[in-house]
Amino acid sequence: MKITAFDPHVITEDAEPVTELFEALGFERRHKKDIDDFDTSDIRMKDANGFHVDISQSDFLAEGDRIAIRMNVDDFDEAYQMLAGRGFKNLYGKQPLSTETSRSAMMVSPSGLTINLVHHIKKEV
User: Fold this and answer.
1) pLDDT for residue 37 is more than 90
2) N or C: which end of the chain has fewer CB within 10 A?
3) Residues whose CB falls within 8 Å of the CB of residue 26, separated by 6 or more in sequence, listed in order
4) Of the candidates 53, 51, 50, 46, which has an alpha carbon nearest to the alpha carbon of residue 11?
5) Is 70 exceeded by the pLDDT of residue 62?
6) Can you give the pLDDT at residue 110?
7) What is the pTM of this model?
């Protein structure tokens, strides 16, 4: 398994003040995605140095603010099994969240460490 991205991820019930904070720090909104199944919206931000931060607004996932790590991988199943084998549970339930462009699982360890595991599906042209 190869890690292709490793970034901070803020999960909150109100994304606007957090987004505004990171804009004041020099980050720009790159794109936004809504996940209707979980009433969640994700904002991807990037600064001039190439650093990223993800901000999710979600009543389902947030208990106040939750800080996570977004970890993109080239082999989702291998990474998922590795984390599950270490006691991580998927907050989405038994199945990963699948869209036409990605698979993801919000994995939480017994101690509360949260990793948003993501694999982007590349469309053939």
Assistant:
1) no
2) C
3) 47, 48
4) 53
5) no
6) 95
7) 0.84
The per-residue pLDDT for 34 is 67
Please give the radius of gyration of the chain, using alpha carbons only, rounded to the nearest integer: 14
Whether residue 104 is predicted with pLDDT greater than 70 in this model: the reply is yes
Positions of E strands within 13-113: 28-35, 40-46, 52-58, 66-73, 89-90, 97-98, 102-108
- Supply the DSSP string of 68-83, one letter for each residue: EEEEEES-HHHHHHHH
Task: Note whether 89 and 107 are within 8 A (CB).
Answer: yes
Residue 7's alpha-carbon distances to 3, 37, 67, 123, in angstroms, are 11, 24, 11, 23
Tell me how far apart the alpha carbons of residues 57 and 50 are, in angstroms, rounded to a whole number: 23
Q: Which neighbouring-strand residues pair with 43? A: 32, 55
